[in-house]
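// run 5 | inverse folding | seed 20
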């Protein structure tokens, strides 16, 4: 079973994502940049990373940059979830290496389809 690392600081959202995806994937949830870094330094290789854009008032861009400049993790697709439809946020995430960006609130079916497309 493929593994998805969800990095989300909102407990309601992380539980929602887990319930949405647990049937098809092994789910690991971290709620901060620090915990995500600790998880990744354990040499665990998820098949997909879902990142909340704002983690405890800090953007995910530094973590995304760390992932994409690490030879061990650079090939892992990253889906960023962002609040709102700001084009500059989506562009910054894509430049930093995200494979996809989805605005919150999102349609659960759309999220599942995007996850499937990124993992396959």
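// decoded
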């Amino acid at each position: 079973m493929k593994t998805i690392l969800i990095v989300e600081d909102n407990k309601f959202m992380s539980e929602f994502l887990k319930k949405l995806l647990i049937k098809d994937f092994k789910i690991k949830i971290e709620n901060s940049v620090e915990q995500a870094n600790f998880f990744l330094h354990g040499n665990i290789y998820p098949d997909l990373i879902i990142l909340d854009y704002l983690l405890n008032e800090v953007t995910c861009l530094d973590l995304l940059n760390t992932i994409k400049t690490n030879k061990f993790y650079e090939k892992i697709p990253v889906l960023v979830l962002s609040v709102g439809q700001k084009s500059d946020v989506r562009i910054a995430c894509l430049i930093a290496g995200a494979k996809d960006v989805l605005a919150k609130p999102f349609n659960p079916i759309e999220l599942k389809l995007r996850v499937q497309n990124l993992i396959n």
